[in-house]
């Protein structure tokens, strides 16, 4: 993970004012400034796993209780200032190290502000995503347009409901939900990274190419039996009122539907009815 952090900092050209605040439950439960000692501690924290297999621990162990209660082993979140967000974020949550196969996954999430896309172009964003993906034995992953909430998520989502439904290319991240995603895919995006299990299930990269005919869609094979499906040269928001329904996204959604994470009623957001939340969740299928 330390190497991934270094790649992220290199690609965004960090000059000391893009990531300034740390959130680390193992160091401090409250946000803290990223001073030189804090950076050193975080790098050491990410260097090696903190614990061995949890099923080797005594069942009365305090750490076993703490880790299973919070749902992850190592966690760190690095952002811009809490009160003046930069739009840059590096977040990592490590799966609990059980010996037996588990649907739990480790989760890496990074973000850049929309001005990074406008200033550097989509190729730079794609380069960042591929550089990170190359080092990850990923099961699933994606890159694209996504909303970011530093606070007030439950208040803001109902206000932008109509705009959200109108522009299906924008994603609403569900932080922490991918820790138990298993082999499922949490939606269709601009770049879609498919792990070995899903790629094999659809018949391999060549078969996948033959099933996708939308202009601009490409399928690129990656190491470790993985692939990335790119839906055009740049991420698009789409606009259903201007007849921009993102047909390439809909085509891929239909192909991958058996492996898409299904809608569950408890996914309903504050201010949304179950029908409205379901409509957004299945926006590329219905």
Tell me what the structure shows.
The chain is of the alpha+beta class and 286 residues long. The chain folds into 2 domains: 1-111, no CATH class; 141-286, no CATH class. Helices cover 34% and strands 18% of the residues. The protein has 11 helices and 9 strands. Strands 2-1-3-4-5 form a 5-stranded antiparallel sheet, with helices on one face. Strands 6-7-9-8 form a 4-stranded antiparallel sheet, sandwiched between helices. Strand 1 (21-24) and strand 2 form a beta hairpin. The chain is globular, with a radius of gyration of 19 Å. The model has no long low-confidence stretch (mean pLDDT 83). It comes from Corallococcus soli. This is DUF3396 domain-containing protein. Pfam families: TsiV (PF11876). InterPro entries: TsiV (IPR021815).
Which band does the percent of strand residues land in?
15-25%
Average pLDDT, rounded to a whole number, is: 83
Distance between the termini: 38 Å
Shape: globular
What kind of sheet is the major sheet?
5 strands, antiparallel
SS-based structural class? alpha+beta
Number of E-state strands: 9
**Rg, alpha carbons:** 19 Å
- What's the structural domain tally? 2
Q: Considering DSSP H and I runs of 4 or more, what fraction of the residues is helical? A: 25-40%
Number of helices: 11
Would you list the SSEs in sequence order as H and E?
Answer: HEEHHEEEHHEHHEHHEEHH
The spatial strand order of the largest sheet comes to: 2-1-3-4-5
Weakly predicted, low-confidence segments: none
